Amino acid sequence: MENGELKKIKQKKLEERIKKVSEVEKRPSETSSGPRHLTDNDFSDVIREADTALVDFYADWCGPCKMMAPAIETLAKEYVGKALVAKVNVDNNPIVAQKFGIASIPTFAIFRKGKLAGTIIGAVGKEALKGALDRAIKSA
Known about the structure:
Elements lengths: L1 H24 L10 E2 L5 H7 L2 E7 L4 H16 L5 E6 L4 H6 L7 E6 L2 E7 L4 H13 L2
Parallel strand pairs: 1-3, 2-3
Antiparallel strand pairs: 2-4, 4-5
């Protein structure tokens, strides 16, 4: 009897945690202070909703990706309300990475109205990313 009740309690706690994590992942970047982390499950929907988006395809083990992280954080704050700045961990989200042919990381993809508008491969300066993002916004 105790085992059954304990299982129910554990299951309920697990469901509550999953719901809380899911709510955090769905939080729009306009209300957050950093880039939005996208997954294979929500990538298409989120990108389709954004007029302009900059997506950082990265991996936790990647040195150049780590070097670019502060620039992505800063851009996310600078472009609140203007563009979505997001990140996709290619190790955890291989479907999206494969869909866009991500073979090198970091790769930065610019999207306009849900369509891929350009890519930048490798660790580049923040100004290069900012310039690409500004051009994409102006092309509206």
